[in-house]
Hints:
By secondary structure, the protein is mainly alpha-helical. It has one domain. About 80% of the residues lie in helices and about 0% in strands. It has helices at about 1-20, 20-60, 70-90, 105-140, 155-160, 160-185, 190-205. Helix 2 (about 20-60) runs antiparallel to helix 3 (about 70-90), helix 3 (about 70-90) packs parallel to helix 6 (about 160-185) and helix 4 (about 105-140) runs antiparallel to helix 6 (about 160-185). The longest helix has about 40 residues, at about 20-60. The protein starts with a helix and ends with a helix. The model is unreliable at about 200-205 (pLDDT under 50).
Amino acid sequence: MIARLYNCVAGAGRRVIAFLSSPIRCCIRIIDTLNEHTGTAVTWVSTLLVLVICAEVYLREVHGQAYTGLSELQWHLVAVVFLMGAAYTLKHDRHVRVDIIYASRSRVYQAWINLLGCLIFLLPFCALVVVESQSFIEYAWHIKQTSSDPGGLPARVAVKSVIPLGFVYLFLQGIAIAGKSLLTIAGLDESEDKESDATDEAVSV
């Protein structure tokens, strides 16, 4: 009886996912494209970060001149790279996993882990950060917050504003991963698998 009920519910779920597969794929494609372009842009910010570090070291060690603005610019750029690159990293599954049983399991089992992980942890956490950071950002803009150090950058409020933006991108990528997981569970992810494998192959090369 229980097995029959389970099969009935599972079958109905697959039919619903199959019916919604086109909009799900479209949503995944849009989010993946957005985060792919954002990740590419972030690589240029990383290049700028390296140049700023080299300039700061050169001025300090060769000319004996220290610039607070350059030092602050480094961690501003690090914050942008970390926050805006997190979704891109998640898209390519390059975040660190505590991999105990995940790798040895089937794709459907992995999809269930990804789906539950997104729904229980990732999406609520991202939503919480976005909501709770609003008062923090609004206050910073209200007082027009700048660096408290002499010679520091005047745009500290701007880098703080990247916090909710980065988590919005991460939230969107969580939706895309949840969608891919649903398609995998329903046995409808064939085209996504090929695309994902090709992307991973290109990244590893």
